[in-house]
Each structure stands twice: as C-alpha cells, then as structure tokens.
Amino acid sequence: MKTALTLTLATLALGSALAQSAPALDAHAKRDIERHRAMAKAHEEAARCLEAGKPEEQCQKALQTACKGLAIGKYCGLKHEH
C-alpha cells in the first residue's frame, strides 16, 4: 500500500513538473494546431464515409467541403496513392 501511495505521489509530481515546463505557444502556433486538428477530423470523417460503403467520389467531395479554406489543394493537405 505504501509503495502504491509513493508511486502515485511521484506520478503526480512528474505530471505537474511536465505541465509547468510546457512551452508557451504564440497565436500562430495555436492556429496551426487548430488547423491540423480540423484537417485530421475531416480525414477521419472521410475514412468513416468510405467505411460506410459510400462512393469514393461522394466521400472526396465531403472532404473537399470540410477542408475549404483550411488546407492547400483539393486533398485537404494530404494526398496518397490510389
């Protein structure tokens, strides 16, 4: 029991130290992070669309709509081979 308590306290202390040492992000970095998360969400939705058996063209169009103004190019900043 004492070992578990010691381990828990050490974990909390380490977590607190890591949280305090996280770098401060400027506005540009925060916007960039938001864009990456939005692009990832759009790609996840495209994957779910394909998993649902919908036509690739329909899923691609939805991806393009979700990414309009978010990423460069018609593939939402990501293109892979087909």
Topology:
Blueprint: H1 2-20, H2 27-51, H3 56-67
Helix pairs in contact: 2-3
Mind explaining what this structure looks like?
The chain has 82 residues and is mostly helical. The chain has a domain at 29-82. The protein is 68% helix and 0% strand. The protein has helices spanning 2-20, 27-51, 56-67. It is elongated. The mean pLDDT is 80.
Gyration radius, in Å: 20 Å
- Alpha-beta content class: mainly alpha
Order of helices and strands: HHH
Tell me roughly what share of residues is in helical segments: 55-70%
> How much strand?
under 5%
Overall residue-averaged pLDDT value: 80
Q: Span from first to last CA?
A: 56 Å
Number of strands: 0
Question: Regions with pLDDT < 50 over 5+ consecutive residues?
Answer: none
Can you tell me the overall shape? elongated
> Given the structure, what is the number of helices?
3
Query: How is the main sheet built?
Result: none
Index terms:
82 residues, mainly alpha
Structure summary:
68% of the residues lie in helices and 0% in strands. The chain is an all-alpha fold and 82 residues long. The protein has a domain at 29-82.
